[in-house]
Amino acid sequence: MADPKAVRLDGDQTLVDQTLSEKLSSWNDRWLFPVRKLASEAMKDADPGHGIEHVERVFKNACELIGQNPVSLDVLLPAIWLHDCVPIAKNSPLRSQASRLCAKRAIELLASIGYPSESYPGIEHAIAAHSFSANIPCESDEAKILQDADRLEGLGAIGLARCLMTGGSMGQRLVHPTDPFPIHRTPEDNVQSVDHFYAKLFRLPSMMNTPEGRTLAQSRCGILITFLRQLAEEMGFEFDQQHAQSIIEANAIKPNFSKPS
Ligand SMILES: [Fe+2]
Ligand SMILES: [Fe+2]
Description:
The protein is mainly α. It has 2 domains: 7-150, Hypothetical protein af1432; 154-250, Hypothetical protein af1432 (Orthogonal Bundle). It is 55% helix and 3% strand. The chain has helices at residues 20-42, 52-66, 73-82, 98-112, 120-129, 141-152, 156-169, 195-199, 204-207, 211-235, 241-250; strands at 7-10, 13-15. It has a two-stranded antiparallel ribbon. α1 packs parallel to α3. The chain is globular and about 60 Å long. The relative contact order is 0.11. Bound molecules: fe (ii) ion (2 copies). The site of one fe (ii) ion (FE2) has 6 residues, from loops.
C-alpha cells in the first residue's frame, strides 16, 4: 500500500514529506483561479446537471479517492476541472466523441494560460478515458480516479437528481406505464428516466477502478433503491428489490442493451 502522504509530482519523483492538502494548496495557489475560470466559461451553456457545480463535486469526490493512491496532481487537477469543457447533449450523435473533444479542447485551453506542457499527455488521456461511452481503458491512476469521481456523480442523491433533470430536459417520461422497474423488457433509457438506473447506474459499482470508489458507489446505490421502493409504493406497483440488487452486486445484465450516456 502506498504511503498516504505520497504525491507524485512528475515522472517517478515521489515526495513523501508533504501532505496531500499542502500539495493541493500549492497547486491551487498557482493554478486554481485561471483553470477554474477556463472551465467556468467553457461550461456556461451546459445543461444543469453538467455545469461547473458538477465539476466542483467531482473534485470533492476525487479528494476522497486520492488518499491511498499516489497521483500527479499536476495531471489530475486540470483533468478534473476541464473534463467536461465541451458541452455536448446526452442525446447528441456526437456523444461518443465528447470526451475526446473535451481532451483536445482542454489542452488548447491550458496552453492558452501557459500550463506546463509535460503534463499534457496525462491530462489528455485522463479526460478522454473518463466517459462511459468513449470505451477507452484507463491507463493511469489519474484517469482511474477521474473516472470514478465522475461516476459517483451518477449515484446517490445528486445522481438521482441529475438523472431526472437530464431526462426531463430531453422530454423523457419518468417510468414505463405498465412495467416501471423493467422486469419483462429491455430498459430504454432514452424513453424513461428510471430505466437509466437499470441500463447504467446500477452497473457503476462493478465498474469502479478504486476500492474506495466501489464502496462509495455501492453505498450511493442504496439511495436509488430507497427512491424506487417509495416510488413503487406511491404508484401501487411491486418493486423487485432483489432484481435491482442483483444488478448492483453482480452486474448481472446484458452488456449490450444500455444506451451509452
Ligand atoms: Fe463527462
Ligand atoms: Fe463529468
